[in-house]
Write a structure and sequence with these properties.
The complex is a heterodimer of chains A (111) and B (113). Chain A is mainly beta. Chain A has no helices and 11 strands. Chain B is globular and about 45 Å long. Classes of the chains: A mainly beta (111), B mainly beta (113). Chains A and B meet through strand 4, strand 5, strand 9 and strand 10 of A and strand 4, strand 5 and strand 9 of B.
Chain lengths: 111, 113
């Protein structure tokens, strides 16, 4: 079944802890993205990657890090420097057609 | 960032009526527009798209209208059903923008049975 998979669905982080959110796609898309969504708000771009081994900061990259070692995978690490990490995180990918396909999201909560 | 905004944050319609959701954008270089539907706790799903060389595009029960003169986009849903209740986002992108999608706040559509 083709698509984009995020895991875990729910994640809890203690203060000062780093956590990593997984995003995998089997759509053979070159571009992958991470967005953050807060309640009642739209999607804000954290990081994006147009090709393997390359990525760029989005609008709210501070406190986050990413890697793109494989075409299929684009993990996002929420570091302890991110002071307000509680949010819904969405990963997306797109190909030549520029239409983005989204995963089902990871809800991160600080405890 | 880009300014892709929606005129109304909430919209309530009677089941069976038509719904119209509006969106404004500010970048005249935008050449590709997408409407997404997001149900609670889920990722956005593609509904319909339109390129800037078109004014109108129809899908199943949905129509997107693009007015480039006033930088306005709308989504029309015919015969709205309870399953249409969700948040709807418009997004725009342009060739010079590294293919980033810029999203508006969204409109929450509630269908009243």
């Amino acid at each position: 079944d083709g698509g984009i998979t995020q895991s875990p669905k729910y994640l809890f982080r203690k203060e000062g802890q780093n956590v990593t959110l997984s995003c995998e796609q089997n759509l053979n898309h070159d571009a992958m993205y991470w967005y953050r969504q807060d309640p009642g708000q739209g999607l804000r771009l954290i990081y994006y990657s147009q090709i393997v081994n390359d990525f760029q900061k989005g609008d709210i990259a501070e406190g986050y890090s990413v890697s793109r070692e494989k075409k299929e995978s684009f993990p996002l690490t929420v570091t302890s420097a991110q002071k307000n990490p509680t949010a819904f995180y969405l990963c997306a990918s797109s190909g030549q057609g520029r239409r983005a396909f989204f995963g089902q999201g990871t809800r991160l909560t600080v405890v | 960032g880009e300014n892709v905004g929606l005129h109304l944050p909430t919209l309530s319609v009677q089941e069976g009526d038509n719904s119209i959701i509006n969106c404004a954008y500010s970048n005249s270089a935008s050449d590709y527009f997408i409407w997404y539907k997001q149900e609670s706790g889920k990722g956005p799903q593609f509904i319909i798209d339109i390129r800037s060389n078109m004014d109108k595009r129809q899908g199943q029960r949905v129509t997107v209208l693009l007015n480039k003169t006033v930088k306005h986009l709308s989504l029309q849903i015919a015969a709205t059903q309870p399953g249409d209740s969700a948040v709807y986002f418009c997004a725009e992108t342009h060739q010079t923008g590294a293919n980033n999608l810029f999203f508006g706040t969204g409109t929450r559509l509630t269908v009243i049975p």
